Every structure is written in structure tokens, then in C-alpha cells.
Amino acid sequence: LDPARFFAASRLVIVAGKGGVGKTVVSATLARAAAIVGLSTLVIEVEGKSGLATMFGQQQLDYAEATLSAGGGPSAEGEVRARTLTPDEALLDYLHDHGLSRISKRLVASGALDVVATAAPGIKDILILGKVKQLERSGAADLIVLDAPAAGHAITFLQAARALLDTVRVGPINAQANEVLQMLTDHQRCRVILVTLPEETPVNELVDTAFSLEDKVGIGLAPVVVNGIYDEIAGIGADPRQAAEAAGTSLRSGEAEALAAAAAFRRDRTELQVEQVARLAEQLPLAQIRLPFVFTTEIGPTELDDLARRLLAEIDALPEAV
Amino acid sequence: MPAPSLRELVEQRRILVCCGTGGVGKTTTAAVLALEAARAGRRAVVVTIDPAKRLADALGLEGLTGTPSKIDGDWPGELWALMLDTKSTFDDLVVANASTPEQGERILQNRFYRNISGALSGTQEYMAMEKLYELNQQRDFDLVVVDTPPTRNALDFIDAPRRLSRFLDHRLFRMITAPGRGIAKAVNVAAQAFIRTVARVVGAEVIDDAVAFFQAFEGMEEGFRRRADAVLGLLSDDDTAFVLVASPRRDTIAEARYFAEKLGDANIRVRALIVNRMHPAFGEGLGEVARERATTLEGTDLGGLYRNLAEFRLVASREEENLAGLAEAVAPAPVVRVPFLSSDVHDLEGLSELAGLML
């Protein structure tokens, strides 16, 4: 599958998954990959602090849009921009757009938003998704990547529109929820990319989330991303002492044991990963994009570039029909 | 006097609160600590928030019950587990604080109230603390281990009880629900106008529900406030220990550090730091040296073996570097490193294995 076509399938891509599976890394990787093929991308963070900006070697994000990597250059790359979205700020924007600036400050400062949000659950989510919809409609970028809240909450978050329609039957919020729902259920406009690790619990959660999103929200699912797969290394099945002999060298004391233990660890983990990837394929009929485990504790621009190129290669290898 | 070890905390304290951000293994860690207390002969109960299905099965948790269920096993003490049911915990609290059964019933039936447990931020955190308080009061257990919801902001759950009582005491709605009380009347008119505007946006029905709720709640705020204070008092009690759970990824460590600072601001000290999923380093050698060997030997089996060893050693040393600052920030609390295992944990046997590594 041509990456340009993959990214053109919908302007909005929502990245969701359980905490700790690397949702933000995948969001950044998607954005970087889209930039490499020449698309301008906007990443939206909804959970406040995240490591997104540092992956691009930049400072923390806020509500104002910031450029994480400039486009252009010899290969005509697209730019990557990013911003955060919080309910309070989205509410101020919303009230401003609806000619209600006068009451907006008071609504937030008095805590009345909490009261209203409790009376009509999902209102905070709708404020955020409404703002996303506005950005999507106005074509704020070729690709908009929304780094969604952690899994359990992702379902509630994306279900908010439908739930709210039952509570708020008239008025502007109702209209807003309707428009958000239209966007979410239109597969030409919006798709969800679910992220998991090749481990039992995250795979189970991903499968549950996938079915919930399809059944309860009617949202389109793009290929899933399996993150953190150990790359194959040739030779780790060999016995260290024999391998040293074959290479015409010798090992210091303790070295053979360390090499053997590390190799056994990787083989065991790889075996588990293969099992979980196969189980996921069996339980969920969606194409898989596999990203490698990066042997570091922090993803920076170099690692992100590598991941983006791996992602593009994986997309290339997908069947046309995805 | 040296700071108590994790084992001493498990064997001596009455309450352990496992806190930290999402995805770091809090639920599993809480279960391990309760299991270890049972193995030390104590009657222990673990309150879990959202266990993965297989762990829930292993703990005999088939659904939300709100009451502890006993897990049988080969240990001298007792191990009990329960999954937090936010709604029923809140219902119980309302009924206990209502001045008449009718008042309680009126609140439970209110649509706005029914939304609270799911929609008001901090409610789950508050109910976890409330359950903890209740279990501690009952004195059926020697140790209560509580898992906390995955929160980015530590204050969310320290602050939750107070935030909720503030919410229930919302001035704006008090003004509307108590019309005509002396000087409040003038303010009242302004408040009414404000609420009417809000109603235009979200619909009058929504506001009516809220007003009805605050009316039904009249007179119960004081009880809630006292309870919130009692819960907070319990959290800062000497018999309570906070266990911070983290993973060695750099961003998670940064969050854990921020978490520890915020707890400190609330005069709560972290008594132990548990870092899950630490990569094994396989011996003492340097990752860089192994990497050089891998490069020289590229293309041979030995080169592959060295590359693999180098990857693990490099990531392990990075993790140690990340950890250093956090360990210092929580000192003298012990730092417990739990290795990333070659298999996943989701049964009692796995929990025992983890316990062996943790304590």
C-alpha cells in the first residue's frame, strides 16, 4: 500500500490504547512518517503532559500551536505541528465562537463547568472533539493525529457524542454532538489506530476496545499497531563458546554466561511476542503494523526518524485493500 | 533509625496506598503486597480498581461486588480481594449521611446524582479512599492495600474528597436552591441570570436536574465534609504508607518524580519506591564495550550475541541513570527494582514469583 494513500484515507486519525503501550510514540511516529511523504501534520494531545515534544527535540506543548519540525528541505517534507486541547480552553473557544464570551470566564472560574459536566456527562469530551472537528473541517493540516486518552477512557471519550444526544436534546451542544458523531462515524473523515504491546493483557484490552468502538460508536478502524517487537538478531541461537571459536576469538570469564543469558531472555520474550501477535491476528481481523522495541528509555529525533521509516516500510508491505 | 524496608511496611503497617501513573503495574504490585502480607500471617485485603481479566480471575474477582472475597491458598494468613464499585460505595455514603431514608432515596433517584460517579472527575479516586476508610474502620483486616486509579496528577486523589465536598457545597447552586434568604437575594438574581444563560447552551433539563439534586442534598454537606477530613487524616496517619510504583522509562520517571513532589506538598512521604519492568543487564560489563565487540564481529554468530547483550546492557544502564534522581527525591525510602521477566504475570504463581523478587 502506498503510504500517501494510507494517510489520505481520512484526515483525522485517532490513536488509542492502554496506558504504557506507547500511544504517544506511535502518534509521533505517524506524524513524522506523514511528514516524510510530504504531508503537513497536526498532532493533538488531550492528556496534558506528554513526551511528544521531546521526541522532536522541542519544549513542552500548550494550547497554542507549535511547530515541532519544519517542512521543506531537499525532499520537500511536510511540517509537523502540535498543540494540546483541554476542556476548559475548548469551552472558552466554544463560548467565544457562539457569542457568549461574557459568561465564559465566570463559567470556568466558578467551577460551574464541573456542575454542568456532571449534569450532562460527556460534555467535556464533546468540547474537545468539537474543537477537533472544527480543525478537521477547516483543513488545519493534511493529517490530524489525535493522541486519545488511555484505553478504558477512550471508549467513553469516543462514545460521548452518542451518550450526550440522549441527555441534551436541544440547543447548540446537541448540534455539536451531532456533528461530532457524523465525523466519527464517517470512515472517509476519521479512523482509529489502536496500539498494543505484544503481551497478553494489552492484546486482550485492544481486542475488547476494537469491538466496543465498532459496536458502540460505529467508528472505522485502521490497521492496528503492535509496538515494541524485538528485532530478530541472527546468531542468538548459537552457543557463545562455539561462536567464539568459529570467530577465532576467546571469551573472558563470565562473558559466555552473560551472552547466553541475554540470548535466552530475548528468545523467550520473542517467543511470547510471536504468540501474542498471532493471537491478536486470530481474534481481530485487522491488518497489523509492527514497530520495533527501541533499546533506549527515551525516544529523541533520531529514534523517531528510524521508527517513522520502519512505519513507512510496514505500510508499504500492507495489502492494497486496507 | 533506618527507614523501614518494603517487607517491614508489609508486615507492620495497616494501610498501603499504591500510587503512580497508568501502565506501570500498580494493580499487580498491590496484589503482590497483599499476598506477601498473607504469607507473613496477616489478614490482608487488596482493593483493586480495574484489574486485567486474567488477574481478576486469579484473584477470584468475577465482577463488582463491593464486598471482599477470600482467596484460598497455602499461607498462614488470609488474602481477600475486592474490586472497587464506585457507584455502590457512593450510594452507601449517601444513605449513611442522609437525615431520613426519604432524603437518601430522593438523591439516589436523581438523574444528576446517577451521573456523578461516572462523570465527576475525582469521584473514583474519592471512592477508593472512602472504601479504604471503611475497610479500616471495620477492623476485619490487619492490612488494607489499595490500588489507585491511574492519575497523572497525584493531587487528584488526595484532593478528591475535599473537591467533592466543595462541589456539593457549590455556592452558585446554593444561591439558587435557597431563594430569598436575606442578603443572598441580590446575588441570587445575578446567579439566576447566569444559570439561564448556561441553560440556553446545554438545555434547561440539565440545569433542572442539577438544581433538584442540590435541593435534595441540602443539609448533608457537613457530614460529607467531616468524612472527607477523616479520610484525609487517615492518609497522613503513621500507620499508612504510600508506595510509589513506576517504570524506568524516562517520561514515566519524570511523572513519578512530580508525583512524589506533590505528595510531599501535602505532607505525605513516599515510604517505598517500586520500579517495575527493569531490564536485566546480564552481568557487570559495559554496554558500550559489548557494542564495540558486536561491531568488530559483525556478520558472525558471536557478533549477534554481543549485539543482543549490548542492547540489554545499554537500556539497563539508561534505566539506572533515569532512576537515580527519583531515588534521591524519595530517600530514605527504599528503592525496589523489579526485573522485566521473560514471561507475563497473571496468576497467583506469577504473583508469588514477583513477590520473591520484590521483597
Task: Summarize the entry for a quick read.
The complex is a heterodimer of chains A (322) and B (359). Helices cover 52% and strands 15% of the residues of chain A. Chain A has 322 residues and is α/β, with parallel strands linked by helices.
Structure description:
The complex is a heterodimer of chains A (322) and B (359). By secondary structure, chain A is an alpha/beta fold. Chain A is built from 13 helices and 9 strands. In chain A, strands 1, 2, 3, 4, 5, 6, 7, 8 and 9 form a 9-stranded mixed β-sheet that branches. By secondary structure, chain B is α/β, with parallel strands linked by helices. Chain B has 16 helices and 8 strands. Chain B has an 8-stranded mixed β-sheet, with helices on both faces. Chain B starts with 5 loop residues before the first helix and ends with a helix. Classes of the chains: A alpha/beta (322), B alpha/beta (359). The interface between A and B is large, with 74 and 70 residues.
Supply the key terms.
heterodimer; A: 322 residues; alpha/beta; 9-stranded mixed β-sheet; 13 helices; 15% strand; elongated; B: 359 residues; 8-stranded mixed β-sheet; 16 helices; 8 strands
Question: Helix and strand succession of chain B?
Answer: HEHEHEEHHHHEHHHHHEHEHHEH
Helix content of chain A: 40-55%
Return the structural class of chain B: alpha/beta
Biggest interface: chains and residue counts? A-B, 74 and 70 residues
